[in-house]
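Practice set, problem 2.
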Amino acid sequence: MKAKIKIQENSYRVDLMKFYDISISVGDEASPVAYGAPALEIKPFKDEGFTGSLEAGSPVNFYNIRINPHGNGTHTETARHISREAPSISELNLSPHHIARLITVTPRITEDADSVVDLSSYDWDSLDLEDVNAIIIRTKPNNINKRRANYTGTNPAYYDHELLSWLNKRVDHLLIDLPSVDKEQDGGALKGHKAFWQTEKKPDYHKTITEMVFVDSVVNDGLYLLELQVLSLNTDASPSRPLLFPLKKA
């Protein structure tokens, strides 16, 4: 199934049957964990005389799922994550389709041995964001461990707030392959989240941050149609499934 997309004066071709799923599948012991969240739990519902599992002899599977979106894999969050005035995922009524650019960056190692994505990590001024309202940032090193890492207590890489202010002026949706834009332990400062949503100035409540994606190295940097699938939850974040469809100028 092929389509043609026109944005202002530019036209693009896309094959809607060919895409890359950059979400991380969760549901077993190898699923990623961050911030000390309990691991995802999927267990059959039990009542007197009934266990909702085919393996246990039930005619159906009938499972309970316990998940912390921020700590159990790929998730999309709104500014409700840090602001009580911001909309929830369901209230945001997020459009599923966006024009996105994928880039790959190398974090800078600081004097304190932190790994930080900042204005020196990429030639940002050369970045072509024409027609683009979402950016996916893949960090090096990029390996399969991102699919199953336990980030708790490891001080993973994070984003500098000045870069996030720069991105705020150019895109609405940010997707990263790290557990958070902010440092794991920052005393509650949350400078990165605040900078992207501008919550201390004029808040941009329509913007989203998606964390803990995994973009395989076989996926080339470039322009994509992003389909960002989320659950309609009345809370600040939802497990999500971002799909990338390669775009070509028509």
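Problem 2, part (b): a different protein.
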Amino acid sequence: MSKIKITYIISGIEKARAFEWIVENINPNSYDVSFILLNKKKSFFYNWLKQRGLKTTFIKQKNSGSLPLIFIKILIQLIKNRPDVVHTHLFDANITGLLAAKILGIRKRIYTRHHSTYHFEYYPKGIKFDKLCNFLATQIIAISENVRTVLIQKESVNKNKIILIHHGFDLNEFTNVDERRVELLRNKYSIPKDRKPVIGVISRQMEWKGIQYIIPAFSELLKKYPQSYLILANANGPYKEEINRLIKIYHIENYVLEIAFENDLFALYKLFDIYVHVPINGEIEAFGQTYVEALASGIPSVFTLSGIAKEFIVTEKNAMVVDFCNSSEIVGAIDHIIRDEQLKESIIHQGMADVKIFGLKPFIKKLENLYA
């Protein structure tokens, strides 16, 4: 029996362990996997794939004006590959990859929907492109019930075209972290050991991520716990200037560390005593991998209910839940965790148990069933 040929087309990714997990775990006896990567330069992920001998094509992505040329290059590459399945990820890859696959008559055209209501709230022009992708795809992977609802109710997609597949995680990588790796990061970023508690945030700096409500909350926390320390990781994005302005307004520059990018995500979580992720409404987050990652790492967390959190997070059971856009509730929840050791240990234990539903094996099995 011949292998099913799958071509992944992905845009704008530097490094993503999630795609590495797919490569490492998909059945090599049944599936022949290749990649087309759109990016400004050859990425960490490109080099990772090449080192493992996977067929990988790099297409330089300059700006949106280069999409016609990218489309032609993808078309040529798909003619060479002749895949049975094309699976696209992220906006530019979806548009160019699905269109090229449609023109070539590739029968199985899948895209994973990684955003929820972002275009409805911030970029209305993008809605027509979402609808184009919905039309071009034969199947759409919704990564959460939230995304599935948006596709059906806001974009009128036939529900039979949508497959709900939650992200899968190798949960062992979050629990089995050598302490030496954590200490390497502590030294790398010169984090004093006497600064406690360390409040962690891993989030691109965009208005809808709600970091602007964490800053004043942390300022209040300092009044009660003067040795507190705030780490803002993945500190890039269109809202960065506003975040930096707030840091200065609240005079917390000496208590904040900003990390643009850290490769060892698993050790990074272990630097935190408490984790905070507070998107500004319930629909804007498509999934929110960081909800799962923080709990899998055993970090007591403060959340708003957006994306996947709406499906499994329960306050004082596996995390602390706060209202949207509410700094006072954020600082209150952090203080509650600090003061109540029994609660802290309880939500850590239950959180680590509850994220097991997002294990890697069920995720890979669902993908393989979809491809087959």
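Answer key, part (b): The chain has a mean pLDDT of 97. Residues 139 and 264 are 34 Å apart (CA to CA).
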